[in-house]
Design goal:
The structure holds 2 protein chains of 2 kinds. Chain A is mainly alpha-helical. Chain A is built from 20 helices and 1 strand. Chain B is built from 5 helices and 11 strands; from the N terminus they run ααβαββββββββββαα. The chains are: A mainly alpha, B alpha+beta.
C-alpha cells in the first residue's frame, strides 16, 4: 500500500462533517441505532395475539433492529451527507469532493467513504479475501463433520447453519470477486477514464456490502441460517430468528449489486476513451458489463423474494405459507429467476478475464473477438430463460420441463463459443509459462467437466436421479470455483503489479496454483462419485458406502486450503515487501499498463486516444 | 486492422505435421475420456433396480460418449500447445509468427457441430422423458400415497384396508404410481436404485411412476433439506414377489389413518 504524508487535520476548514466520519463512527452509530431501536421496539410492540403465528413479535424486533443498524451504519460512514446537502439546496464543496476522492490521505482513505475507484477496488479485494477466508473455514468445518459417516461432531442445527452460511457467503464472494476488485480498479483505466461515472455510488456499493455483513453475522448468534443458501419456504418460515439475518443480508447486498451494476454499465457506455469503439473495447470490459448488466434484472427479484419472506415472518402475510394459501413454488420461482442468471454473473467476468490474458501470454491475437462477444451475449440472453431447470422435479409445472430442457441445452452453444476462442488462441501460440497461462488450461479442464455434467443435469430423466444429490454440489463447484475462482486468481496474479506496485511472489503463486487445482479436482471428483452413489446434499450423516468418496473429498479440501493459505502468504508478503513492479510487466497492450505505478489520482495526465484494439500481437507476414 | 496473414487452412492442410499430431491426440483422448468417464460413473451408480434407472444409466453413457470428442478436442489442442514452444522467464517470448484473428470456416463448423450436438441431446432427452411420462398413465398400475413429514415417510396403500406403513413394500414387475405430498415443509422422495425422485410439497400432490424389476431391499432418501434431521429422513423399499407382497398387505392391521382416497388416483 502506498504511504503518503498525511496532512495535518484542521488545515482545511471547508471540509465539513465528512472529515469526522469513517468506518469506526459507522460501526458505533450503527450499533447505537440498533440498540435504541431494539429497546424501543421491546417496549412498544404489542404482544402476539392468540391468532398470530409463532415468533412474529421477535421477528419484528429483530428485523427492526437490523434496519436500525443499517441506517445508522450508512449515516455513520457518511453516505447520507451529500444527499442531505442536496436536499438542503447545496452541494459538496470542491475541497470536500477532493477529500472524498481520498486526495493525499494515505492509508486512511481505505477506511472512509472514499470515491476514488482505485481505493474502492482495493477495498473490494480485501473484503473478497475476507469472505473467502470465512467461507473456507466453514467449508473445512463441513468436511470435518463429514469425516465419519455418523456425523455428530457438530449439532445438526449448527451444521445446517454452517452449510447455509458457507453457501451464501461464497456465492456473494464469487459474485464480487472479479467485478469488485478488478472491475473497479482496472476497468476505468482500461477504458481510459479518470474515474467511474458515479464515484459516490461506487463508494456506496462497497460500504453496503460491509453493512450487509453484520446482519448475517448477527444471525449466527440467534439461531443461524439452517435452510441452506437457497432458504426455501416454508422451511425458512419455520426457521429460527437467524433467518432474519439472511433476509437483511440479501436485501442490502442486492442494493449494492444494483448500485454497482448501474454504475459500471454507465461508465462503460459513456466514458470510454476517444476512439475506443465497441470493436476496440477489450473483451474483459464486455465480461464485466455483461455480468453487472445481467445482475440488474436478477437482483431486484432476489430483493423482492426476501422482502416477501420477511413479511411472512414478521407481519403474518402468507406469500409462501402453504397452510394459509401461499405457495412454496412461488418462492422457488423468484429465487431461481435470480439464481440462474446469477451463476453467469459469476462465471462470465472470470472467463472474460482469462480471454483478456490469453493473447498476452500466447503473444498472438485473440482468436475471434466477435465470437467471444457473441458467446457472452448469447449466454446473457439465454440465462434468463432457464431458471426452472432447478425445478424439474418440484412438481410445479411438469409440462414446462421439455421447454426448459431446450433452453438449458441451448446455452451449450454460446458456452462452446467461449471454449473455441480460448483454444483457438492457444493453437500455435508461443506460451509464456506463467500462472495466468496455466490458469487458462485449468479453466478449460474444470469448465469442461462442469459444463458436461451440466448437460446431464439439464436432461430431465437424468436429473430425476441426480437432483438434490452431491453430484449437483460437485457440478456447481466445478463451474463457480473450478472455472470462476480460477479466473479470479489468475486476475489477481495478472493485475497485482498494477494494483499494488509489487510483483506477486512467483514461486509461492506457482505452488499455490498446483495445490489448489489438484486439490480441487481430487475433492470434487470424489464428490461426483458419492453423488452418483446416491448421497443427498446437505446431510450431516451418511451411509457407510459413501465413506471413501467423502474421505477423498476431505483430503482434496485440505489441499485446497493449504494452497489458498500459501497464496495468502504470497499476497501479504509481496504487498509488504515484494519486488517493485515495472509499469508494464507483461508487455501487454491495454491502457491500464500505460499509467505509472502507483496509479495517480484521476489516472491519466492527458486522456488517451485509441486507434486500434489491444490484441495486435504476432508478426504480420 | 486488416488481416495480412495467409489463411492456415489452405491447400492440403490436412497433410501438415502438426495437424496430424493433433488428430492422433484427439482420437486417443476421445477414446480415453469416453471410456473412463462412462465406466467410472456407471460403476458409481451401482446396479439398477428398474427400467427407469437403466435408462438413466444409458443416458449417462450416451451423453458422456457424445461429449468425449469435444472434450478430447479441447484437450488435444491444450496438450498440443503445452508440448509446443514454451517460454520461461520474466520477459515475454518473441511474438507469434502469425497473427491469425479469425477463421470463418472453423467458427462456422464449430457452431454447426455444437448446434447439432445440442439437438441430439435434446432429442435423446425428450424420448426418455416421454417414456417416463407415459408410465404415469399405465392402467395396470397400483397407486400408493406417500406422505413426508419431518422427518419420516409414510406409505398409504389403496383399498379399503386402511393400510399405513413406515416401510415401503412393492411387488416386483408391477407398475406403481406414487402420489407424493408433505405435511409440513418441502421434502423430496428419492428411490435411489430405482432412479426416480419427486418433491413432496405441502398441500399439493405430485406424481411419479416406476416399475421395479428386481427383488431386494433398496434405499429411500430425502433429497431436499428439510430441517434438523434431514440426514436421517431415509428408509428402505422392499421389492418382493407378488405373492409375498399380497401376504404382507393382508397381514397389515387397519390403522384407520390412511390418507388414501380413490379420487387422487385419477389425478
Amino acid at each position: 500500500m502506498m504511504e503518503r504524508p498525511t496532512p495535518t487535520s484542521g488545515d482545511s476548514p471547508k471540509v465539513g462533517i465528512i472529515r469526522h466520519l469513517n468506518v469506526f463512527t459507522a460501526f458505533a452509530l450503527g450499533a447505537l441505532t440498533a440498540i435504541i431501536v431494539w429497546r424501543l421496539s421491546l417496549a412498544l410492540l404489542p404482544a402476539d395475539s392468540e391468532s398470530a403465528p409463532l415468533f412474529t413479535r421477535e421477528d419484528k424486533i429483530t428485523l427492526l433492529s437490523m434496519i436500525g443498524w443499517f441506517v445508522g451504519f450508512m449515516a455513520g460512514i457518511g453516505a447520507l451527507v451529500a444527499p442531505f446537502r442536496w436536499v438542503m439546496g447545496k452541494d459538496l464543496s470542491h475541497d470536500e469532493n477532493m477529500f472524498l476522492a481520498g486526495k493525499d490521505m494515505g492509508t486512511k482513505r481505505y477506511f472512509r467513504y472514499t470515491t476514488d475507484h482505485k481505493v474502492v477496488g482495493i477495498q473490494y479485494l480485501i473484503i473478497t479475501m475476507v469472505i473467502f477466508g470465512i467461507g473456507g473455514i466453514l467449508a473445512m468445518l463441513i468436511r470435518a463433520n463429514l469425516g465419519t459417516p455418523e456425523g455428530g461432531w457438530i449439532h445438526p442445527q449448527a451444521y445446517n447453519s454452517i452449510v447455509g452460511t458457507h453457501g451464501i457467503i461464497m456465492i456473494v464472494g464469487t459474485i464480487i470477486m472479479v467485478t469488485g476488485p478488478f472491475g473497479n480498479y482496472i476497468m476505468p483505466i482500461m477504458i481510459g477514464a479518470r474515474d467511474m461515472a458515479f464515484p459516490r455510488l461506487n463508494a456506496l456499493s462497497f460500504w453496503l456490502i460491509v453493512a450487509a455483513a453484520i446482519p448475517l453475522l448477527w444471525g449466527q448468534f440467534i439461531g443461524g441460517i439452517s435452510t441452506g443458501w437457497s432458504a426455501y419456504n416454508p422451511l425458512a418460515g419455520q426457521a429460527p430468528l437467524g433467518m432474519n439475518g439472511y433476509i437483511m443480508f440479501i436485501c442490502i447486498f442486492a442494493l449494492s449489486t444494483m448500485v454497482a451494476g448501474a454504475n459500471i454499465t454507465t461508465t462503460v457506455v459513456r466514458m470510454r476513451a476517444k476512439g475506443m469503439t465497441w470493436n476496440r473495447t477489450p473483451i474483459f470490459i464486455y465480461g464485466v458489463v455483461a455480468s453487472v448488466a445481467l445482475a440488474l434484472p436478477a437482483f431486484p427479484v432476489f430483493f423482492l423474494s426476501q422482502v416477501m419472506s420477511g413479511m411472512d415472518r414478521a407481519l403474518g402475510t402468507s406469500f409462501y405459507d402453504t397452510a394459509r394459501g401461499g405457495s412454496g413454488w412461488l418462492y422457488e420461482n423468484l429465487f431461481w429467476i435470480m439464481g440462474h442468471p446469477e451463476v453467469y454473473v459469476i462465471l462470465i467476468p472470470a472467463v472474460a478475464a482469462l480471454m483478456e490474458m490469453a493473447p498476452v501470454f500466447t503473444r498472438r491475437p485473440l482468436f475471434s473477438f466477435n465470437v467471444a462477444v457473441m458467446g457472452i451475449a448469447g449466454i446473457c440472453g439465454l440465462s434468463v430463460l432457464v431458471w426452472a431447470h432447478h425445478m424439474y422435479i418440484s412438481g410445479w409445472a411438469p409440462l414446462l420441463n421439455a421447454p426448459f430442457m431446450l433452453t438449458t441445452e441451448l446455452i451449450s452453444i454460446p458456452t462452446g463459443m467461449l471454449f473455441l476462442v480460448l483454444i483457438g488462441t492457444l493453437w500455435r501460440g508461443r506460451l509464456w509459462m506463467t500462472v495466468p497461462t496455466m490458469s487458462i488450461f485449468a479453466l478449460l479442464w474444470n469448465f469442461m467437466i462442469g459444463g458436461v455434467t451440466g448437460i446431464y443435469l439439464s436432461d430431465v430423466p437424468a436429473d430425476a436421479f441426480l437432483h438434490g444429490s452431491m453430484y449437483v454440489t460437485a457440478h456447481f463447484h466445478y463451474t463457480l470455483m473450478g472455472a470462476g475462482l480460477t479466473g479470479a486468481l489468475a486476475s489477481l496474479v495478472y493485475w497485482f503489479p498494477k494494483m499494488t506496485g509489487k510483483m506477486l511472489d512467483k514461486k509461492l503463486s506457482w505452488i499455490s496454483f498446483w495445490l489448489v487445482q489438484v486439490g480441487f479436482n481430487v475433492a470434487f471428483i470424489g464428490m461426483f462419485f458419492v453423488g452418483l452413489q446416491g448421497q443427498p446434499r446437505r446431510v450431516e450423516a451418511y451411509a457407510a458406502i459413501f465413506n471413501n468418496g467423502n474421505l477423498i473429498t476431505s483430503i482434496g479440501a485440505a489441499t485446497i486450503m493449504t494452497g489458498m493459505l500459501i497464496l495468502l502468504a504470497a499476497v501479504i508478503g509481496s504487498w509488504r515487501s515484494g519486488v517493485k513492479a515495472p509499469m508494464n510487466p507483461w508487455h501487454a497492450k491495454s491502457l491500464e499498463w500505460t499509467v505509472p505505478n502507483p496509479v495517480p489520482l484521476e489516472n491519466f495526465e492527458t486522456l488517451p486516444i485509441v486507434t486500434e484494439d489491444v490484441y495486435g500481437y504476432g508478426r504480420k507476414s | 486492422m486488416p488481416d495480412t496473414n495467409t489463411p492456415y487452412f489452405t491447400g492440403q492442410w490436412w497433410k501438415r505435421k502438426d495437424v496430424k499430431r493433433h488428430a492422433v491426440l484427439w482420437v486417443i483422448l476421445t477414446a480415453f475420456i469416453g471410456y473412463v468417464g462412462t465406466e467410472v460413473q456407471v460403476f458409481a451408480m451401482g446396479a439398477p433396480a428398474s427400467e427407469t434407472m437403466e435408462n438413466v444409466i444409458d443416458l449417462m453413457r450416451i451423453f458422456t460418449w457424445a461429449a468425449a470428442p469435444v472434450a478430447g478436442f479441447a484437450a488435444a489442442i491444450s496438450i498440443g500447445a503445452l508440448m509446443g514452444k514454451r517460454h520461461y522467464g520474466d520477459n515475454p517470448p518473441p511474438e507469434s509468427e502469425h497473427a491469425i484473428r479469425n477463421s470463418p470456416r472453423a467458427i462456422a463448423l464449430w457452431i454447426v457441430v455444437s448446434a447439432l450436438m445440442c439437438l441430439f441431446a435434446l432429442v435423446v432427452g425428450l424420448i426418455a422423458l416421454q417414456k417416463d411420462d407415459a408410465r404415469l398413465l399405465d392402467a395396470k398400475a397400483i397407486h400408493i400415497n406417500v406422505v413426508g413429514q419431518q422427518w419420516a415417510w409414510n406409505y398409504d396403500y389403496p383399498g379399503s384396508a386402511g393400510v399405513r406403513s413406515e416401510v415401503l413394500h412393492l411387488p416386483v414387475n408391477q407398475p406403481v404410481v406414487f402420489h407424493v405430498t408433505s405435511k409440513d415443509v418441502k421434502h423430496s422422495f428419492w428411490l435411489v436404485q430405482l432412479g426416480v425422485k419427486i418433491d413432496a410439497n405441502p398441500g399439493q400432490f405430485t406424481e411419479i411412476s416406476v416399475t421395479p424389476n428386481k427383488i431386494g431391499t433398496f434405499d429411500i432418501r430425502c433429497a431436499e433439506l428439510c430441517g434438523l434431521l434431514h440426514a436421517y429422513m431415509q428408509n428402505k423399499v422392499i421389492v418382493e414377489s407378488k405373492a409375498d407382497y399380497e401376504a404382507w398387505l393382508a397381514s397389515q392391521p387397519d390403522t384407520g389413518k390412511t390418507t388414501w382416497v380413490e379420487e387422487k388416483a385419477d389425478a
